[in-house]
Amino acid sequence: MKSITQYLKKLWPVGLAILLLQGFSSCRKELNYTPEVFVSAPSLYKDEPGAIAGVTGIYQQLQNLKKSDYQLIGVIGTDEARCTYQAQGYGSYWAGVVGMDVYDITFNSQNSDISGFWTDCYQGIANANAAILYIPQIKNFGEPAVQSRLMGESRFMRALFYFYLVQLYGDVPMPLENTSFANGLPRIPQAQVYAQIQSDLKFAVANCWPKSKLGGNDVGRASQEAAKALLGKVYLTLHDYANAKTTFEDLINNNHITLLQNYADLFDGKHENNAESLFEVQFSTDNNNDTQGLQNLYGSYAGPPISGETFDQHTPGYGGTVVMATAFYSDTVFSKPYTWASQYDARYKVSINHDRYDGNGNTMSWWVDPGLPTVRKYDISNSDIDVYHSGKNLYYLRSADVFLMYAETLNELGQTNEALAPLNKVRERAFGNGSVDFGPTDQASLREIIMDERTRELGAEGWRWFDLKRTGTLVQRLKRYNDPKRDFMKKNNSTDDPHPAQNVSDKNYLYPIPLSELQNNAALGLKAQNPGY
Amino acid sequence: MRKLLLIIVLFSAGLLSAHAQQRKINGTVKDSQTGQTLPFATVSLENAGKVINKFAADQNGKFAVDAAVGAVIKVTFTGYEPNKVTVGDSTNITILLKGNGNLAEVVVIAYGKEKRKDLTSAVTSISAQQISEAPSTNLATALASRAPGLEVHSNSTQPGASASVNVRGLNSITQLQGPLYIVDGVALVGDIRNINPSDIESVEILKDAAAAGIYGSRAAEGVILITTKKPKAGATSINFDMYAGIQVNNPAYQMLDARSYAKMKRAGFQDADPGTFGAPGTDTADYKMFNSYELQSIANGYTNYDWQKAILHNNAVTQNYTLSVSNGTGSNRVYFSGQYQDQDGTLVNTGYKKYSGYLSDETNIRSFLKVGGSVNFAHDITHNALPNEFQQSLTESPLQPIYDAGGQPLIVVDKSTGTPTIFNPVTLALNAIDLYTTNRTNANLYLEFTPLKNLTFRSSIGADIYQAEEDKYYPRTTGPGYTPTNGFAEIYNTRATDVLWENTATYNFTKGDHEVNLLGGFTFEKHENTATDMQGDQFPTDLLSYKAIGSAGQKLQDNSNYDGWTVRSLLARAVYKYKGRYILNATIRQDGSSRFGSNNKFGVFPTVSGAWRVIDEPWMGYKLKTWLSDFKLRASYGLVGNQNLPYDAIYTRYDAASYPFNGSSITSGYTAAGTNGVFGNNSLQWEVQHQFNAGTDVAVLNNRITLSVDVYNKNISSLLMPLPLAPSSGFQTEYINVAAMNTKGVDVALKITPVQTKDFTWQTSINWSKYTSKVTKLFPGRDSVNLALRVGLPPSGTYVNYIYDGLYQQGDNFALNPNGKPGDIKIKDVNGDGKITPLDEVVVGSSIPKGWGSFWNYFRYKNVSLTVYSTYEYGQKLNNLTFTDLSYYNSLYGSAGNVTKQGGNYWTPTNTNTNIPRPNTFGTPLKTLPGGVGQGSSYSIQSASYFKIQHITLGYDFSASLLSKIKVRSMNIYAQALNPFLFTGYKGVDPDIAGADAANEVYPRYRTFLVGAKIGL
């Protein structure tokens, strides 16, 4: 017993040292411990499912951009739609939204929608940048075609976001990878941004799959058709008509894009991702992927009247109406060139909600500009909805837009007569026959006709501000057609209307750079603002 | 038997001599513990009780004197117990003196113990006696102001409320988590309310870097060491402590009666719209302002309903029982205890219950091997007050009946819409459930191996497992559960576990005048938090409540969260003492944390400190030492880290995202830069504090007066701050180490024993502390984040708001507030631009006190003792939104409900000399307060200085002679008043409550009267 004790007494330091060092070294490994609540880019992009999950996140950023007030950018402050006269009184927040419509003092760098749109676009870009960096590094990707397709989708999405930014804000910071931002990001000249967009889209044309190949759960992904259509739109925007023509003809002839037979089917919520659709923002009633907010904004929820009830959730306008059609969109444009045209134009009753009723069938004169028509395209009463959810998709690009852009391209190239065919193709679908086709005319008149036709066909779908900017007609058409004061006072025989006057001017061809960007971007500073703001 | 007070060494055996024989005695005076000689002790030679000679020993503690056999040599030395020897045959004697009072006191320090006199750093001990002086449901509140520099505020007056604890001011801008608690070497998570104060031996507050730095990165906000009771060697005892008492409401708010309320309400309506509501001062249009029940009350001559009384529970009982057993005999020593505590709330259906048990055991297996461990388990249940419950009872119309004819709480339902217009706070109190239950196990096991006399290895593993569950149910009779919600339930579960493994070796040696203590070791800690949350509504009935959350028709939330980190550390300490007068202490700790990126995981935190025991210098004359008992100087400097950054700050985080391809089939994915938006910074480093502390300990008149003063200066650099990123990055923030701040302050502790006689003792102790904190640097090129967080201001606690500039009077210029009327609040146009805009907001106050502390007084006459403990704080301000709410009848700001009696003195055209605005039924932020709802102005900023008697305790100790007859070792009975008096100008429940400024979160104020007994067997 004693000898054992002595033995132990001699060897204990060795044993202890071994034990402790063992414990100590294993603790060192424990320092690489990470909480597994979320993933980081390197851990996400390591296989095919990870790449799919990361690209899914980019799409969600687009959805975020299109399901809130930011969706109004491109729609309001145009000749098609305007804020209701009361919207400004809903509170300071809505005064900011009204500012985007009337270009008053709240159309400034602190406007939360102007800065929110900017921020959301860049969040989408940050996600796309990570995907573009990491996807090519994935080895042993299950299906190489999917790997290149996901790259194509990512670059399509990045182009989409930059295309918004460059049109709205002009020269913009252009991060193409996510590195430290400590030194800030300078504003890049528009031409360079457009060059990047073209490069991304050309890549997308080459790598995205055609619609025909996208089935099942891949329906709704950016397709080759979408990439070509967007590339064509970019050329058109740059007035590069030659390239626009080539691109549109390639799309029309090689991808065989078509129109749906019935215009009404486009917006009934039952024909999503249809043959005419080139790229849609997907929504569903699950997981907050819904567009319910939009029916609030547009006051479009025209559920069936419930007798004996007033102002409940089934009442049109329940929840508020912020945006409605201008008199131009709801009346004038459909009465061109013939005053009777609206009643035969299938697009009219799909686009415009002319009358509003309460549960007793009486015309509403509540807090929406009394009796004035609203936009109907966001009506969700016929689609997969309940009062809190709407899964109705939104169009980003559809074939009718392509035909009208093609017509515009040909007209600008001086091929005015050739432009009539694609224009009348759209028109014939609306009227069911060629009886109201446009005949040959001069280039300037056709330019005006195409702009009107775009409203009739694509009204309130989000492209109008960009159309007006492209054609340099923003100030002119707004002064002519978007005057809520006049609309309101005419309807009410009123002389007293506090709605802001129209303040649109040439400076509004660019949005202000958000103040938070100027303050926090070391490469910018307050003086880097767009002129006039 | 080394613990004998006196050892007399006799070198020669002599014969007892009957006659007085003078002989020369050579004596030496030494410290009984260290054996070191004590210079200049006072020596007196007495014979038959008379002092014959009195002189001082020399600087080597030696003296020589002629004395007769039988004479007595008495030696006194400051800081030591006097001692005497009778002269016998020996001519060489050594007189050993035992240190007394503070000097001999042993305090617990990081990884060990140290004599108080040898401390080099700022450490304050709080004894078991002080902690158990007054009952508390939370150990933290028992520490309030017991140590200078320690700031403790209960978060509510509600039983079982948590507390917020600060050691020496503000220590970070964003990463505040409170001090690190170490219980018997085990790190404790969150608060410390689960520990039974009766089980505590002592609490040590480690305040400076030198004391706390060896805990490295977790010590940034100070360390609180809690030592639990261990069995006393060689003794067996049983202790039983109990108290029981009642809590008596002490209303903080007196509300208007029915008649005054009606008058005010009419004024509010008529002032706004006399056309609709009648001429001011009339009651012609009452039917437009009051509901049918109120009109009935008016018709009955203003029947008054006391809503406050309806939900108050007067004379609520509080009680507590602890039984502990300690057995220190034999090689296995054990201590265990059990506690039951039950405090009913003074708001009906609220209260706190605790069941806890504690077991500690230590066994000597061999002379060189010892194992031990302890387990503390606590189960506690808090019945929380429901949000707004008390607030609503205060503001409810006194004309409104509380119960219907059937005796049920009355809920008024608008028949046309079917929705209730008045919910009843009584139903909320009686029917809604908010239950908070925690289970906590705190355990450790250790092994001590002493292969050599001076060398000890210790390995200990400890765990703290904390599980909490909050259950809520709002039935249909309450606002949150009413149709169409049809009952709302929530179950929220959290669990925190902390495992700590520590291995240390200590080695001590003494050679001549040199004494060295060495410590080295490594530790590993792993921490994990989890949380799950379930919410649902649409219950078929209210019968089953949250217990059957599965029956919810609609699932609102099912979420989980997870967080964790690991830290592994190397630590070392060396203490060197020379001649017991010069003490040098150096520590170093290297921490590696999982919270930092791969290149920055490790941080090194060295500290150095020293003490100079001036009193022990040979050149201190003995005459000086007749009144100066102790004099010591201390200084320390060191680094302490902080790793409390958000656990995901180094990662660019991808959160769950989904996209419904095909318009319906959800594809799940991940997205970065979403709502979280943190751009990961892999190069983040530790936040580092550079702490300097200088202190002195002085005692005079044989320790009758002791004073400790410490000054400190903390420069905190590379502070972790979220840098707002440009949106074009796609991200919102990136954590960076750039900001810096400074905190400096003074801690003073003074103890006096004014009277000490055989029968009567009076002791008093006074604490005073203050600090100032300010941000010295923020982001590159930016010195402000917002008005309240900028360079030069404290990092938190600053109120920024508009300046209240009195009330508008008739004839005033209303240019600043075109919609205003006489009697409205006037806001100062600070920048003089003729408009009230956010630019007119300025700093209007700070919640940081200019100073705070406590007074403790203890009187004892024979067996009767009286203790009075009071605390104070001054110079701080609070944004008392509750007061504004309760004094200002306004539909927007507040609830257009009843107001306090002070609020009844509102502005009218004939009552203009008041600060209470006119009743404003249709208020808008523009017309009233530009800060808007819930923001207020400097109108709400009130001085929160206070002086508070925490408790008065009258005790009686039964005499030993009586106790021996009934075979009881000790028995004390006492009567106590808790919170008997509060002196303050603050108009609220209690300025001592953390977050006292939050409107609507009030709980009643009350006093507690109790009797208790402490019995020892």
Cα distance, first to last residue of chain B? 26 Å
Low-confidence stretches of chain A: 302-317
Distance between the termini of chain A: 93 Å
Average pLDDT of chain A: 85
- Overall mean pLDDT of chain B: 86
Find the structural class of chain B using helix and strand composition: mainly beta
So how many helices of chain B?
14
Please state the oligomeric state of the protein chains shown. heterodimer
Helix content of chain A: 40-55%
Tell me the strand order in the biggest sheet of chain A: 1-5
What's the SSE pattern of chain A? HHHEHHHEEHHHEHEHHHEEEEEHHHHHHH
Q: Could you name the ranges of chain B where pLDDT drops below 50 across 5 or more consecutive residues?
A: 1-19, 925-933
Q: How is this structure best summarized?
A:
Chain A is mainly alpha-helical and 533 residues long. Chain A is 48% helix and 5% strand. Chain A is built from 20 helices and ten strands.
Question: Could you please describe the fold and organization of this structure?
Answer:
The termini of chain A are far apart. In chain A, helix 6 (144-169) packs antiparallel against helix 7 (190-207) and helix 9 runs antiparallel to helix 14 (399-412). Chain A has helices at 2-30, 41-44, 48-66, 92-102, 112-134, 144-169, 190-207, 224-237, 241-254, 292-298, 327-330, 341-344, 346-351, 399-412, 416-431, 443-458, 464-471, 474-481, 484-492, 515-520, and strands at residues 81-83, 172-173, 187-188, 277-281, 323-325, 352-353, 374-375, 385-386, 389-390, 394-398. Chain A is mainly alpha-helical. In chain A, the strands form five sheets. A two-stranded antiparallel sheet of chain A has the order 1-5. Chain A has a two-stranded antiparallel ribbon with strand order 2-3. A two-stranded antiparallel sheet of chain A has the order 4-10. With 1017 residues, chain B is mainly β. Chain B contains 14 helices and 48 strands. In chain B, the strands form eleven sheets. Chain B has a 22-stranded antiparallel barrel. Chain B has a five-stranded mixed β-sheet with strand order 10-15-16-13-14. In chain B, strands 3-2-5-6 form a four-stranded antiparallel β-sheet, with no helix packed on it. Chains A and B meet through helix 1, helix 3, helix 5, strand 2 and helix 20 of A and strand 27, strand 28, strand 32 and strand 33 of B.
